[in-house]
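Below is how a single chain appears once it has passed through the pipeline. First comes the sequence as given, then the structure the pipeline wrote out for it. We keep one example in the README because the format questions we get most often are answered faster by looking than by reading.
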Amino acid sequence: MKFNNFKQALFASVFSIITIGALTLLTYKTEFGIFLIASFGSTMVILFGYPESPFAQPKNIFFGHLITSIIGILCLNFIPLPLFIIIPIAVGLGAGCMILLNVTHPPAGGNPIIVIIGSVSYDYLINPIILGALIVILFGIVLNRFVLGKKYPENNKIF
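Resulting structure:
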């Protein structure tokens, strides 16, 4: 085990705890609603473990989560087929759209599953998707740039 790997793993762990902790506090200790989705856990791995990755950039995090969630909701509401058919269609469309629009964020590929199994409403797009993703991005910028001194986001472009 190299020291750099240990350091990278330590910072990813601590920053993930801080970020998911903030979302958890907002979800369970305020009346503002839900801020957590399972795929944000996977986002932590990329954002804090590999912030230089194109998949970790704010544009990809935000639009990846948003697009795949919209697709999940639209498929749930407009495809009158059993869930075992809707889910793979939605995941496939979400992956294809992220790639087509150049906003690929692999953790967001799970959002259609979350959305469809949870039978969520359109409000889900505001909270947790939009607000949660913005909080994740804010923590990513602050912790990567100001605590670690890394050049994040890439080319200083948030979107």
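Residues 95 and 109 are 6 Å apart (CA to CA).

See the next section for the split statistics.
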